[in-house]
Known about the structure:
single chain, 11 strands, 16% helix
Amino acid sequence: MKKLLFTAENLRLSIEGKKTVTRRLSGLAKINEHPGEWFLLGQSELGDFVLKNRVTGEHMNVKPKYHVGERVYFGENHRYLKAHAPNDFGIEYQDGTVKWWRDNGNIMDYPINEKWRSKMFLKEIFARYFAEITSVGCGRLQDMTEQDAEDEGVIGLPAFKKLWDSINKKMKWEGNWRVFIYQYRMVEK
């Protein structure tokens, strides 16, 4: 199962049902190097997006990272805690929740040193939140509407622009990058 990374605030908004869409740059780097040269032709039967270069006539299939129907889990910042029993350990999530585990099958391969770890390193088995991808689109960042911003968990395009720029330091809003647009719904594991 693939992982989906959000800020703590965006994860909270997703859990509350206030965020149901995310826009991502991954997979579109070559196209975004020359944004005015590429245009979207359509989508293949496999779910890839087909783009064409206005200058060279070259066609390119771009695969989205996530596909409709796929389940993903959310990474969270966490740390491992020592337990009193020799085969037990705990995981404390950034919101203060602790979940205790018994390490019967050697699933714990990190040292239990109580150091905070990035959400990028949370294993699927320890994940608490899951989503199903319900639609995948491709479009320009600045083609967003007020409703799109609300689906992203913020009120108004200026708020989304500020959020985007805080997360995407090298590819700011002004670049009008082509992005994948993933709609999702929260699900049980």
